[in-house]
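Input record (one chain):
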Amino acid sequence: MKTENNNIIFTVLNKKLIFSLGIIVFISLIAVILFFTVIRAEYIVLGLPFVFFLFVLPIFMIGMRNKIIYRFTINELQYRGENPYRIQWKDITSFNIDSQYITLNLKDNTSKTLPVLNFNTNELHQALSIYIK
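The corresponding structure, as predicted from the sequence alone:
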């Protein structure tokens, strides 16, 4: 659980993004080495985009490594996993958290089930208790 701009967020490591950016950085590194050792100096200009990737992409790897799954804003709950879902706090009457699912009971006598994933259920309960009375 983290706080960002007065919102409570729950994040997980975005493995797909890290893996794809790692491959791009590796390819860029090989290209830069080739451009500065094997290829003639006139073609170094062609290697500048790869230098850009070499120095800019690690910043993205550090800055975007966590994927936000749950965001609790002042007005709504946002789930950003598979099958994204947004609901206003005023539409939720109660909630229940077990080891695998969060069950939200809605005012229209329906319920919505969201996964707990590997989050701490106590932290989820604490965060939901702030918004759902």
